[in-house]
Design a protein that fits this description.
This protein has six helices and twelve strands. The chain is α/β, with parallel strands linked by helices. The chain has one domain (4-116, 148-216): Glutaconate Coenzyme A-transferase (3-Layer(aba) Sandwich). The strands form two sheets. Strands 1, 2, 3, 4, 5, 9, 10, 11 and 12 form a nine-stranded mixed sheet that branches. Strands 6-8-7 form a three-stranded antiparallel sheet. The chain is globular, with a radius of gyration of 18 Å. The N and C termini lie far apart (58 Å).
């Protein structure tokens, strides 16, 4: 199977359609599949449901899809860094399904593992539990959460081989490994691409069986979301 594509546009060709659900890896601006997000923007596809820990920032990450008004609904944990998101949500132009961060991670992991639902104590008695089934186990109350499976997953990895085996670098791993398993089609962008057998098997986090298409990035713009520096002495 040919997995390597020349660019992000070719890697997404034939996969995008209006109204689909897309899972995106990343946390803040770390480990975010920027090039694939830009290709989605350029495609013009609309009414998207995006599953991601956060919505990027204004002008970067998923924020560019909000600016182009291609996102209809966000399933997220934290969106506090994006003013465009706030304006659209408060104006009733954007739907949001908030999740506690651990619950969102487990919903994605469960979807990838074929688990349709699970119970968690997190959120019981709050707005998070409204409309959801609850049960009591061993004297403690739990909320039922559904696993998430998307139409498409887009992820960013540090290094991969042409078979789709992936290695992530430090905190850029974040949501990417879970997202990679939880969609019908997974497309990965990588900073370094090597031949099969070049990667140490003990270092591979995402096996190639989950990855159907790969694109090697020409350049990587690693932005810092919140820069904190000390004053010079």
């Amino acid at each position: 199977m040919r997995k390597v594509y020349k660019n992000s546009t070719e890697a997404l060709a034939g996969l995008l359609r209006d109204g689909m659900t897309i899972l995106s890896g990343g946390f803040g601006l770390c480990g975010v599949p920027m090039a694939l997000i830009e290709a989605i923007r350029d495609s013009g596809v609309s009414n998207l449901t995006i599953v991601s820990n956060n919505a990027g920032i204004d002008g970067a990450g998923l924020g560019i899809l909000l600016e182009s008004r291609q996102i209809k609904k966000m399933i997220s944990s934290y969106v506090g860094e994006n003013a465009t998101f706030a304006r659209q949500y408060l104006a009733g132009e954007l739907d949001i399904e908030f999740n506690p961060q651990g619950t969102l991670a487990e919903r994605i992991r469960a979807g990838g593992a074929g688990i349709p639902a699970f119970f968690t104590a997190t959120g019981f008695g709050t707005a998070v539990a409204e409309g959801k089934e609850t049960r009591e186990f061993d004297g403690r109350h739990y909320v039922m959460e559904r696993g998430i499976v998307g139409d498409l997953a887009i992820i960013h990895a540090w290094k991969g081989d042409t078979e789709g085996n992936l290695i992530y670098r430090k905190t850029a791993r974040n949501f990417n490994p879970m997202v990679a398993t939880a969609a019908k089609m997974t497309v990965a962008e990588v900073e370094h691409l090597v031949e099969p057998g070049s990667l140490d098997g003990d270092h591979i986090v995402t096996p190639g069986i989950f990855v159907k298409r790969i694109v090697l990035l020409d350049q990587v713009d690693k932005r810092i979301e919140q820069r904190t520096v000390r004053k010079r002495a």
